[in-house]
Amino acid sequence: MSKGIFISKVLAVSISVVTVSAVASVVAMITIFQIQVENKPPVRPPTPPVTTPETTGPPPNMRLPKDLVPFDYSVFLQPYLYGEVTNITNQTFEQNIGFSGESTVKFKCKKATSRIFVHSKDLNVTFMQVTDVNGSNIPIKEHMFHEDGSNFLEIVLSKRMKTSSIYQLHTKFKGEMRDDLSGIYVSQYQENVDEKRRPRFMVASQMQPTDARKVFPCFDEPAMKAVFRITIRHRKPSIALSNSEARGSPSVEEIDGETWYKTEFFPTKIMSTYLLAFIVCDFVPKETSSLRTTVSTYARPEAILAGHADYAQSITGDILSVYEELFGIPYPLSKLGQIALPDFAAGAMENWGLITYRETALLYEEGISSTFNKQWIATVISHELAHQWFGNLVTMKWWNDLWLNEGFATYISYLGVDKVNSSWNAKDLMVLNDIQSVFQVDALATSHPLSSKEQDIRTPADISQLFDSITYSKGAAVLRMLSDYISDSVFKEGLRSYLNAYKYSNADYKDLWKHLQEAVDNNQGEELVEAVMNTWTEQMGYPVLTVDTISGNLSQQHFLLNQTSDYNYLWLIPIKVMKAGGKVRDELMRKGSDSKSAFIAEKDEWVLANVNCTGYFRVNYNQENWQRLLQQLNNTHSEIPVINRGQLIDDAFNLARAKYINITLALNTTKYLSNDTEYIPWESALRNLEFFILMFDRSEVYGPMKAYLRKQVSPLYNYFENYTLSLTVPDSHQEQHNQINAITVACSNGLPKCTEMVKSVFTNWIDDPVNNTIHPNLKSTIYCNGIAMTGEKEWDIVWQRYQDASIATEKDKLRYALSCSKDIWVLSRYLSYTLDAVKIRKMDAVSTINYIARNVAGQSLAWDFVQSQWSYISEDYGGGIMSLGSLIEGVTQRFSTEFELQQLKQFQKDHTADSLSSGIRALQQAIERTQANIKWVKENKPIVLDWFRGQAAESQGF
């Protein structure tokens, strides 16, 4: 049986009606929906945004991200230093003295981020806090210090900072003040009190290039400019100095039973971190007030009292006025302080408003310091004051354009010195001091362009390596060439425009070209600044211009000492050319070869290219023109400008080294010198013959060479003999230089009348130091030659006088003289003294080692010493600007054997990039230079020996 459901008839009809109605309603709704869709199609709902995760870790280029831009710092520092040693303080120079501080930096967020990167090195950061513009705290999720060479402190926040909003980072920190002459450090000096010498201590600073991060956490890149509000707490009775003027007198605070001062300074102008300066000392100033700017020169109280700062103080205001007129912009600050530091790594540092100097670069004592010391002081002050505009007011965007700072300051400094004393002819000396010297480095394949690629300069070691002669001297040389090319007046107009456009900001070299071109165009000139100058700044090295005076054809080639250029460089070359009779023409050589009638010689006339060495290149000629120029030198040398007499000698010797001409032609350029008493040609010849001495003073060539030098210098020595015998000097500044050359060359090559004079004068000084009648100009050469002629007893006496000397310029002369001993064991002992900062200050250690290496008796000793002590040297001196590079260069100058080359290569293998630090490029250059020297000696030694022997025979009438 089956089961079923039964319903009534009425209910069935009702259900049917409802069902039909429902279906009809659905159909109607679908129809209406389709009509609405056709009239207004539906829009797809938006896709939820995808959140891009932030990049973690430091930027791979080791540069600060551009997300955050600082604009205001408040920095408080408290160094725990006692200026004077007492029974209570018991402070020593070797101690690491601490400091503490706080910093608040305000910055704008340019791009939303939760990460803050600042620089911090060797600091113990004890507190960090980030707040927004309303003072609300933003929690820090984590922080980390990166040990990859970037020196980054990375702070990760719990949430992102907003674009265009203002934030601030507050930190507290502690650190140590070492004696490494970087960051903020301790310097010790001696003060004479009641005829007793007592140790005193001071705090000094050196931030350039990357050491502000050692003092406080900061955005330590030159383009990250900001205003700085500095406060320093320091022990009574010291004073504190910084970039700005102090806000009145220090306030007094009692802390743990000690009296402290707190000095607050007015806000600085907008500036880069590397220009900050902090000093705590007991120094006193020499002051001069003008209408706008107060100039103050600080030094040890006894130095100020003795008038040692008077010369610097007397010229600073004048140079400042010269630059204000030249640049068309007043010095921007209300005060200019400069201070002589007992310990300082560089020669000076252009900190805005508080320039720091070595004592030898600022202090001058009449009767003790030489006129060359006076010239050096004027040069350094002029250089640092030029930086107040070039570097401080307008700063390079990144360190790859460092030459915009240093090249300009070097070039402009000659203009400043010329205003101080035009009789020095300082602008002429640039050819010797900068152009000829940097030619040697720039003729190596391991040189570098003035403007390196930004991505190639990343680490502090990369940056430190740029502080070399290419940056300073080549930078100055190409600017001198450019000024001559477009005219000094147009150059000046362009500089003014450039400085006004970028003041309190940053620029690169293309910005400079733009403004100089505008000045050219405004004066209806046709010169093309960027096209010409890019060939000099973006390419390393320089050309040799070959002139054929028969056809007038010109050709150029990248000049390298080993002639193996793979770069195919070509330059646009501005040339000044003259012929016998003195008329000068300006020409521009296009890239590649060229032909110009101005270079064709008629009959027996000669052609001289690069008049007054305004161009940064060497010149080679066809054989006929070389012979005519040599004949002119031998007949009437004054027909050729004095600078070009030096140029012909320098070019000839270096062309011979690179095998463009025969070595005997180069040597023949020196034969006329027995009739010339001018400094520039003599100095050019001696520097090039110094290379021969370095190559051959350990061989049989040296004897005949000494005989030739003795013969050639004899007339020059006689020319100055009356002055020399009376221990006085001529009036002419350049003749004063050449008098030193005459004595140095005559005595070192055994001219009897010179050696007898030195023995007598030196012995009198040893026996009676109180009545020292030696003119300050003559001290270095007489002290040196005297030490070389005597023994241990005299060396020990001079060493004691070095220790007792209180005048820095006198100490430098004595320190150099001590390296001239011929006793190997004495030199070895002297080298060991450079490891003791009490005996030889750290700032003088590298130059002392290099002095010893220049002495043939000390060469191998110095090299062995550097190898054995490299770990200590690189650790203690690796941060100093140029120190390691100049050390490697100095101790390897004489290298010319396969054994020495292998030692260099082994040294390179044995040391890491971190260990070599700023000396990496110098070591590469030393290897390249040694390879070139080996090849040169092998090829030229027999020829050179025959030539010198021939000159000896000629002088004896054989």
Please explain how this structure is put together.
The structure is a single chain. The strands form 8 sheets. An 8-stranded mixed β-sheet has the order 5-4-8-2-1-11-14-13, with no helix packed on it. It has a 5-stranded mixed β-sheet with strand order 16-17-18-20-19. Strands 27-24-23-29 form a 4-stranded mixed β-sheet. The N terminus is likely disordered. Among the domains are: 205 residues, tricorn interacting facor f3 domain (Immunoglobulin-like), CATH 2.60.40; 145 residues, Neutral Protease Domain 2 (Neutral Protease, domain 2), CATH 1.10.390; 136 residues, Alpha Horseshoe (Zincin-like fold). Helix 3 packs across helix 5, helix 8 crosses helix 9 and helix 16 crosses helix 29. It has 29 helices and 29 strands. With 958 residues, the chain is of the alpha+beta class. The longest helix is centred in the last third of the chain and has 36 residues. Keywords: Aminopeptidase, Coiled coil, Glycoprotein, Hydrolase, Membrane, Metal-binding, Metalloprotease, Protease, Signal-anchor, Transmembrane, Transmembrane helix, Zinc. GO terms for molecular function: metalloaminopeptidase activity; peptide binding; zinc ion binding. It is found in: Membrane. Belongs to the peptidase M1 family.
